[in-house]
Amino acid sequence: MLYKAPRGTSDILPQEQPWWKYVQEEATRICLLYGYQRLNTPIFEDSGLFARTVAGGTDIVDKEMYVFHDRGGQKLALRAEGTAPVCRAYLEHGMFNLPQPVRLYYIGPTFRYERPQAGRYRQHHQFGCEVVGDSDPTLDAEVIDIARSFLLSLGLPVLSILLNSIGCRLCQPTYVEALKRHYSNYSDRLCPDCEVRLVRNPLRLLDCKESSCQEVAETSPRISDYLCPDCQNHFQAVQQYLEALAIPFEMDYRLVRGLDYYTRTVFEIQTQGEERQGALVGGGRYDNLIEQLGGKPTPAVGFASGIERIISSLKSQQADIPHKPRRTTFMAFMGTEARIAAMKLASQLRSAGIPVIAASGDRSLKSQLRQANSLGADYAIIIGEREVTTGSAVLRDMVSNKQETLTLSEVAAALSGPTTANN
RNA sequence: GUGAGCGUAGCCUAGUGGUUUAAGGCGCCAGGUUGUGGCCCUGGAGAUCGUGGGUUCAAAUCCCACCGUUCACCCCA
């Protein structure tokens, strides 16, 4: 074999497609229910879009972006995450002139150059929702509600919704300072990663898994004590609305998210048994992002979910997915004359909306029917010398074993008629 | 980028230094008389045992390197 799918990518084979279809259709259905509209953004963008918004100090920009130069010398990057492109499109198409907020959703591939492992791939697919243009805390709750409804409607038991507020640019810096001061006192105990975090991304210090670092985190100052009045009110309102919607959540004062643009509300959703591969949904508010992209200050909230993780979770949950039985007909023939007649009849049937799989090659009738069987065909049409001369065809019901010789138009009528629908 | 496990036909697995010209199951193909599937029977195709080097009289089997893959860390969906 000369080539394999690149590391961390995979083919989504026919037998996987029902899962993908199911998840994407559920996502779409839920979005419609909440009045969100679909937006597709390009698979690559100017690399600056991600570099500016997601920002340095985060792995996703520092070492995980697929960056390349096109023939015109433009520096481009494969879509590293979904939110920044949505905001770019919001600005580019003047969506700030639409009634605010604008509710959008997307489904598409995302690329990150990292070592693959359970639940993480170099190409994966995200479904996400974004509400742009309104800072109302009901929208934070709405977005969490959507994510939860989505998982529940798929049949996934939602284990926990983790919630936190990381403040805004007024109050967060004060907290970060306090955090740094606290950690500096214990610098001799920190793991090497945390030594780096202390300088580059202090918020992330909180969720280090090293036990010595966790001890430091235990006694560290809490963001909740540093929120400015506006952020405090906002966060309280979010919680209040979640309670009103009877959405259970857990406060997690150590929850911070990896992307720099988050402000105020951040959240993650996990489901049973899949904690190892991380969150199924992650999101939050990003009130400064649009401004960073050159727009007017515009608040927004959203979330993203990983479709691969969701499907894997569904499978381990042994969830059943609804599948619609599909009636298929196999077209068998014997001889060159009959081959032509079969092709014509197949074509005619398809024009009438009847799915037909045509036999190929020079196989025996036995072999053709064996194939029809393994393809799960409900009917086989058989055309040989006899049928060619009489302008007829044999219609065989593969389930009941009954067959009869019919004229070509009778075959079409029989297959399109409701009387032959056996499933 | 770091660490650990694993790499035998399309898939699953046996074989762990010499009757191996590498075995079995699933799948695939063909046949079991004249134009008919699913079960059964018979036969067939399909593997440079991940790649390269080394140890040995002898290696799929031991050693090393590389590659791939899985899992974990980092980080994230």
Please describe what this structure looks like.
Mean pLDDT is 91; it is low at 419-423. The chain has helices at residues 17-33, 47-53, 59-62, 83-92, 137-154, 172-184, 192-200, 211-218, 229-244, 289-292, 307-316, 336-351, 365-374, 385-390, 408-416, and strands spanning 37-38, 44-46, 67-69, 75-78, 102-111, 123-132, 158-165, 250-251, 263-271, 281-285, 300-306, 329-333, 356-358, 379-383, 392-397, 403-407. It is α+β, with helices and mostly antiparallel strands and 423 residues long. The strands form 3 sheets. It has an 8-stranded mixed beta sheet with strand order 1-5-6-11-10-9-7-8, sandwiched between helices. A 5-stranded mixed beta sheet has the order 13-12-14-15-16, with helices on both faces. It has a 3-stranded antiparallel beta sheet with strand order 2-4-3. Helix 1 (17-33) packs antiparallel against helix 5 (137-154) and helix 5 (137-154) packs parallel to helix 9. It is built from 15 helices and 16 strands. The protein binds one RNA strand of 77 nucleotides through strand 6, strand 11, helix 11 and helix 13.
Measure the end-to-end span. 41 Å
Q: Give the helix proportion (percent range).
A: 25-40%
Look at the structure and name the CATH superfamily of the largest domain.
Bira Bifunctional Protein, Domain 2
CATH architecture of the largest domain: 2-Layer Sandwich
Annotation, overall tally of beta strands: 16
**Total discrete domains:** 2
Assign the structural class, choosing from mainly alpha, mainly beta, alpha/beta, alpha+beta, or little secondary structure: alpha+beta
The top-level CATH class of the largest domain is Alpha Beta
The gross shape turns out to be: elongated
Largest sheet report? 8 strands, mixed
Strand content: 15-25%
